């Protein structure tokens, strides 16, 4: 039987929230690239956190340092008002 994916009681969700919280604390502006978050745990947990609004995203554009061309990238942050995030962080 396949893994049905996480829910709010899943330890993978807690681990993701705690890891993103630590990275936000260390990041300039408190934002972390979504690609970095995707590297923290399995895709199903990140997808669940996005769908449940535990993680919020912000689509941005930055200039490529070599070519000067605009490049899209996605930042994300914890939704500090979400009950799961409030329970697991000191914010």
Map the helices and strands.
Elements: H1 11-26, E1 32-33, H2 34-38, H3 43-51, E2 55-63, E3 70-78, H4 83-88
Relevant terms:
91 residues, 40% helix, alpha+beta
Characterization of this structure:
- This protein has 91 residues and is an alpha+beta fold.
- It has one domain (11-88).
- Helix content is 40%, strand content 22%.
- The chain has a three-stranded antiparallel β-sheet with strand order 1-3-2.
- The protein is elongated, with a radius of gyration of 14 Å.
- It starts with 10 loop residues before the first helix and ends with a helix.
Number of structurally distinct domains: 1
Report the portion of residues in β strands: 15-25%
Strand elements, count: 3
Low-confidence stretches: none
Sketch the topology as an H/E string, one letter per element: HEHHEEH
Main pleated sheet:
3 strands, antiparallel
Structural class: alpha+beta
Question: How far apart are the termini?
Answer: 38 Å
> Percentage of helical residues?
25-40%
Mean pLDDT score: 89
In short:
This protein is α+β, with helices and mostly antiparallel strands.
